[in-house]
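Quick one: C-alpha cells for this chain, please?
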Amino acid sequence: MLRLIKPDSAEGYDFRGRVFRCTGKYDKSIADFSKAIELAPYDAWLYFSRADAYAAKEDYPHAIADYGKVLEFNTDNLAGNADVYAARGLCHSKVGDYSKGIEDCRKGLQLDTNCVAALNNLAWLVATAPDAKLRDGEKAVQYANRACELSGWKNAYCLGTLAAAYAEVGNFDEAVKWEKKCILSGLPEKEMEQAHKELNLFEQKKPYHAEK
C-alpha cells in the first residue's frame, strides 16, 4: 500500500493518484486528485491529472470540465495548453459534439503546430465524424502524416488515425497497410478490438465513420 509523505501534501496525493490511474483504479485516482486539488486549488496540472483519470473512466463530462479548469488557470505556459485542447476535443466527440471537438483540436494546433495529440485528434475527427459536413479526408491525411512523422512512426494510435484518413479519401490499400501496422504496434484490448473492426471495413473498401 502506498503511503503519503505528508498527510497535507498535495504532491503526495498527486503522486499516488497517478499510480492509481496507471493501474486502472480510476475512482481511487480521482479521489486522490480531488484531495490534492483541495490542498492546492489553483494548480492547473492537478486538474489535468484528474481530467485524464475521468477520461480513462469514460466520464467525459467531468473530464471536459476539468480540462476547462486547466485552460482557466494555466496562463503562464500557453503552448502547454495545446495538449489540453486536444484532449478536451476528443472528449467532446465522445459525447457526440464533433463540432466542438474539432474546434478545440484546431485551437490546440494554433498554440503548437507540432503538438502530436492535436494533430492526431484533429485528423481522427475530420476523418471519422458522423456528419459528412465536418469531414475533410485530405486534411485528415495531412494532419495524420505529420503526427506519425513527429512520433517516429511508432505510435499505434497515430498509425490507426492515418489508416482512417486514407480510407476517407478512398485509398484503401494504404488504409489496410497502416491499420495492420497499428495492430502490430500493440493496443489495449478494447482498442485492439476496434482496430480489427476498422481493418475489416477497410478490406471491404469502406471508410470508418463514428455512429451518431
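The chain has eleven helices and no strands.
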